[in-house]
Amino acid sequence: MSKPRKSIHGEWSSRFTFILAATGSAIGLGNIWKFPYIAGENGGGAFVFVFLICVLVLGLPLIIAEVAIGRYGRQNPINSISNIVEENKSHPMWAVTGWLCLLSGFIIFSFYSVISGWVFSYGLQMGLGTFQNISPDDSIKIFNQFLSQPWTLLFWHSLFSLLTLLVVAKGVQTGIEKAVEILMPVLLILILTLLAYALSTGKFMEGLRFMFDFDFSKLTGESILIAMGQAFFTLSLASGAMMIYGSYLPRGISIPKACFMIAAADTAIAILAGLAIFPIVFAHGLEPASGPGLIFQTLPVAFGNMFGGQVFGALFFMLLLLAAFTSAISMIEATVAWLVENHDMTRNKASLLGGLGAWLLGLGTLLSFNLWSGKTLFGKNFFENIDYLVTNIMMPLGGILIALFASWVMSKHSILNELGIKEGPGFWVWRVSAGLIAPVLVLLVFFHSIEFF
Ligand code: PHE
User: Which GO cellular component term is one of those annotated (predicted)?
Assistant: First the structure.
């Protein structure tokens, strides 16, 4: 396999568009839905502090590694990694890394699309006033009823998948780049608008305290592992996303600098999201719930009972939808690129086929909440099983392999060339973080999260 000098899918027009696209990938449900809550639960400011350290010592070296492998290989993750393996005459087993990443992105897309479908529907219902003056009990009833209707869920899941694949089919510059150029500024405006709304509730300080008060008593060993897992997921690592986006990055752009900006923007949005959500929850005297409960049960009650809640609630779900959309694009792009490069398909055909495959797999998730809710394997339904497989097993393993691969298997000359630096302290900081600290940390998360131990 020879290495092309440029990806056949084209390149980002500028460093800025790459940063927009990669930040769009990073900012997703993980930032707006998960981060605020886990921060509040695990010791507020103390947790945010630990999370920042995890981003610096684990997330940043790994995202740099992925983008560098992508730009060096100039193809989909499977080919890029196989090329390096061949070039260095390393053990062929390393090629598994590319497969793990590509499959992880594909599988995450399948369930992300189903859940983003819920967001779609909730945004619309919020705008139409369905949640006006509802009680917490009503809210739970509405949510359960919604989940019990497979055809409704199918409609929203299909619509979300279709829209994502339409963008992907249009290609790197005319599809993905155009989409993020329009959507990312809208996302920023939406989050600032919601922040202003949160300020007007009079409960801003309470929200600020919930997220930032240093409470070391709540910061356990477990919280540290949670912070590492979150740093990993929020930067879209080990899913092929950053690697494929890296393969479209023009030469001459500094990877470490660009990655630093992506990690900083991603973290800033996660913090702003928390500052926007909690005052709204507290304004109505509600308790912040975890997981799907916060977004689909608690927030509709809060918005439904507040002045202007109908409009701002709809804007909130729109924000969530945009964040999910730009992430979903990056999850499936590697699969589409692989179909084009290895199976000689046009981009349209590859998007259709890749999208159809992920959509079909998504049906398993969709049915897990209704018709198949009783069907379990290892005590988990279909959705819980694939979520577990990908987030607790495939992604950590992929992450460890990428870290070791970039730092020890790829030749020093090639990696220095990609990072645009000389062998000096900067390189060694990266190499020790990516090649030693990151794999050990991810291994800890891995052993912690798999249930056999
Ligand atoms: N980073 C995204 C989020 O925080 C999730 C994601 C994972 C996106 C993997 C792309 C690839 O929600």
Answer: membrane
Ligand 1 center to 27 CA (angstroms): 7
Residue 65 tokens read as 């590694």
Which residues are registered as beta bridge partners of 377?
Answer: 380
| Alpha carbon of 237 to ligand 1 centroid (Å) | 8
Q: Please work out whether the CB of residue 335 comes within 6 Å of at least one atom of ligand 1.
A: no
Range of the domain at 75: 15-450
Q: How many percent of the chain have pLDDT more than 70?
A: 98
Q: Smallest Cα–Cα separation from 25: which of 315, 239, 178, 195? A: 239
Rounded alpha-carbon distances, angstroms, from residue 369 to 34, 150, 366, 404 = 20, 8, 6, 38
- Answer yes or no: is 9 within a domain: no
Which is the closest atom of ligand 1 to the Cα of 33? 12
Q: Would residue 4 count as lying in a domain?
A: no
Which ligand 1 atom is nearest residue 26's CA? 1
Which residues make Cβ contacts (< 8 Å) with residue 102, sequence separation at least 6?
A: 76, 77, 78, 240, 334, 335, 338
Q: Which of 64-68, 345-349, 418-422 has the lowest mean pLDDT?
A: 418-422
Question: What CATH number has the domain bearing residue 164?
Answer: 1.20.1740
Do the domain assignments include residue 5? no
Q: Whole-prediction pTM value? A: 0.94
DSSP-assigned letter for residue 305 = T
Burial status of residue 346 (CB atoms within 10 A of its CB: 0-12, 13-18, 19 or more):
exposed
What is the pLDDT at residue 451? Answer: 61
Does any domain span residue 3? no
pLDDT digits (tens, 9 = 90+) for 50-76: 999 999 999 999 999 999 999 999 999
Q: Is 33 exposed, middle or buried (0-12, 13-18, 19+ CB in 10 A)?
A: buried
Indicate whether residue 31 lines ligand 1 (CB < 6 A): yes
